[in-house]
Write a structure and sequence with these properties.
Elements: H1 19-35, H2 51-59, E1 64-69, E2 75-77, E3 81-83, H3 88-98, E4 103-108, H4 114-126, E5 132-136
Parallel strand pairs: 1-4, 4-5
Antiparallel strand pairs: 1-2, 2-3
Length: 143
């Protein structure tokens, strides 16, 4: 009788190669970063004047229309006459007809309704005013 010989195989452990998995994960990460869309909040763009702009304003001879909004939501043009919120556009158009290079300054009290200030700003832009500025009146000290 012949004896059967047993073959001995080396004890192979089941190794999982994770290198391709890591490659795929990094490729997907790069893909999502590149294709991601970033949301930009929409708001009112305000250009704050620099020191150079203040010097230019002093040299400028163009007139400006001042629209004041009081804490009681009253709209006053050039500190002289009170107007209705629906008449802002017509007043700005009339001013721009007289002063084509003129600007519009909207001066609002801190307690004034924000919606009213935005409405006045929109009407001034709809009237064709290219140079519209917004300022907030300084709070007066109680005395």
């Amino acid at each position: 009788m012949a004896m059967k010989r047993k073959r001995t195989r080396p004890n192979d452990e089941a190794d999982v190669n994770v290198t391709p998995l890591l490659d795929i994960v990094f490729i997907m990460l790069i893909f999502f970063i590149v294709t991601a869309t970033f949301v930009r909040e929409v708001g009112i763009d305000l250009a704050r004047p620099s020191d150079d702009d203040q010097e230019d304003e002093q040299e400028s001879t163009a007139k400006a229309m001042v629209i004041s909004i009081s804490a009681e939501d009253r709209i006053v043009v050039n500190g002289v006459r009170e107007i209705d919120r629906r008449a802002v556009r017509a007043n700005v158009e009339r001013f721009l007809a007289e002063e084509p290079q003129g600007g519009v300054i909207i001066s609002a009290a801190p307690e004034a309704a924000t919606g009213l200030a935005v409405e006045v700003l929109d009407q001034a832009k709809e009237a064709g005013a290219a140079n519209v500025s917004i300022s907030i009146e300084a709070a007066q000290a109680a005395g």
